[in-house]
Amino acid sequence: MKTASPVRCVVENPSIVGECPVWCPREKALYWIDIYAPAVFRYEPATGENRRWDMPEPVGSIALRESGGLVAGMASGFCFMDLESGAIAPIADPEADDPGTRLNDGRCDRAGRFWAGSMPHRPG
Q1: What is the pLDDT of residues 37-47, one digit of tens each?
Q2: Is the pLDDT of residue 72 over 70?
Q3: Which of 105, 102, 80, 78 is closest to 92 using CA atoms?
Q4: Residue 110 Cα distances to 28, 68, 71, 106, angstroms
Q5: What pLDDT sits at residue 118?
């Protein structure tokens, strides 16, 4: 006899490439990205609210900022994202001389520095 699975879908959110889940303990919310339908998402379990910010280009990773908002690794390099306005502020493009690459997987280290790797725009 089969028993019901304790796993359930809490957000119906089809993504092309959904990655980089980040839990925010202060907000009690989960952030994640869709790389190729570029967007950042935020889900708040207590209210069921799911929010979406469309991004202007592929986004490969995000991290929370202590001062609010996010830092992201994108096709054009590192940027800050203001969650109130949705504004994107470029920081630096470490591979500006190679337009065929984008930033991909990234995380903060224990000192709070955001690190990201790069890869071809579309792996092939």
Answers
A1: 999 999 999 99
A2: yes
A3: 78
A4: 21, 18, 16, 13
A5: 92
CA Rg value for the chain: 16
Check pLDDT > 70 for residue 108.
Answer: yes
By CB neighbour count within 10 A (0-12 exposed, 13-18 middle, 19+ buried), where does 27 fall? Answer: middle
3-state secondary structure 19-63: EEEEEECCCCEEEEEECCCCEEEEEECCCCEEEEEECCCCEEEEE
Q: What's the residue count for the chain?
A: 124
Place of tokens 């203001």: 82
| CA atoms lying within 13 Å on the CB side of residue 39 | 15
Does the pTM of the predicted model rise above 0.70? yes
